Amino acid sequence: MQALWLENNQISLRDISRPQRDDEALIKIRKAGICSTDLELIKGYYPYTGVLGHEFVGEVVDAPDKTWVGARVVGDINAVCGKCEACLNGRPTHCENRTVLGIANRDGVFAEYTTLPLENLHRVPDSVPDEMAVFTEPLAAALEIQQQIQIKPADRVLLVGAGRLGQLIAQTLALTGCDLHVVARHPYQQNLLSARGIRLIAEADIQPRKWDVVVEATGSPDGFNLARKAVRPRGVMVLKSTYKGEMNVNFSPLVVDEITIIGSRCGPFEPALRLMEKREVDPTVLIAAQYKLSETLKGFEYAAQPGVLKVLIEA
User: Fold this and answer.
1) Could you tell me which residues come within 8 angstroms of residue 38 by beta carbon, excluding any fewer than 6 positions away?
2) What is the CA radius of gyration of the chain?
């Protein structure tokens, strides 16, 4: 089968064997999405060799339980052992032996087929088209913020960053009724937010030490510093993106101001699917372009351009 292969920070299309695991479902990929993590992996953010990609919607073509065959599905990206201390204590996304789809020790979805354990799969409602369903994983990641902390309508919430993930975070936070403002640099990002009635704020207009919750979604030192200046004493900073390399952080003011810092990663798939089924969020507005699997290299070139949001690959 054809697949996008990453090795030594270089990507190439190549023919590889179709995956086969007797204890997992074989999934024909319908659509897959390029995300910032994929682009960072190419830059060397994390050592990985294999097929890239973890955002997908597909169709089960074979499975240990034949009732899954023909189902249109999305899938949790962490395949876990169920036996380690983290799994046994309700923290499966931190499984000590996990493999991660297209990220760590498990080939991903920029390919014709992939495999996942049945317990990772979620059936896609008939009313949710592929162009929506492919966003389930990042939308779930956006919802993880509300799994970790309670966002109240009275809260002043600042979101720093309005890229691929930031847009979905903004849409989900807006549903809470909180006093939400978003820092967005690119005009297209700004227009998408304004169209949904989400308020923008310029960096120069951010009141320091006044915001109850600040979500940092840029993955840059500048974004972190802006978030730190904005959060009030005893406020909460949510770090919603990974940072390449090391950052210099003065922790003394964080201690003095009693700031709560929360790292936030993977999230719940079923609520994400319900929000799309009810049309309470619309991730399709992020789609900038779609490419065939044979054109994936062009798709990555386009996705890497500043301000480009979601690029989809059709297998």
Assistant:
1) 52, 53, 54, 102, 300, 303
2) 19
Comparing CA positions, the residue from 166, 195, 196 lying closest to residue 183 is 166
- Determine the Cα–Cα distance for residues 228 and 238; give it in Å rounded to an integer: 10
* Cβ pair 81, 34 in contact under 8 A: no
DSSP sequence for 161-183: --SHHHHHHHHHHHTTT-EEEEE
Tell me how many domains the chain contains: 2
Are 56 and 114 a contacting pair, CB within 8 Å? Answer: yes
Q: How many CB atoms sit inside 10 A of residue 68's CB?
A: 18
| Token digits of residue 125 | 């409602």
pLDDT value at residue 35: 94
Which of 252, 185, 254 is closest to 217 using CA atoms? 185
Q: With a threshold of 0.70, does the pTM exceed it?
A: yes
**The domain containing residue 9 runs over which residues?**
2-123+282-314
The CATH number of residue 215's host domain is 3.40.50.720
3-state secondary structure 75-143: ECCEECCCCCHHHHCCCHHHCCCCEECCCECCCCCCECEEEECHHHEEECCCCCCHHHHCCHHHHHHHH
Low-confidence residues of the chain, pLDDT below 50?
Answer: none
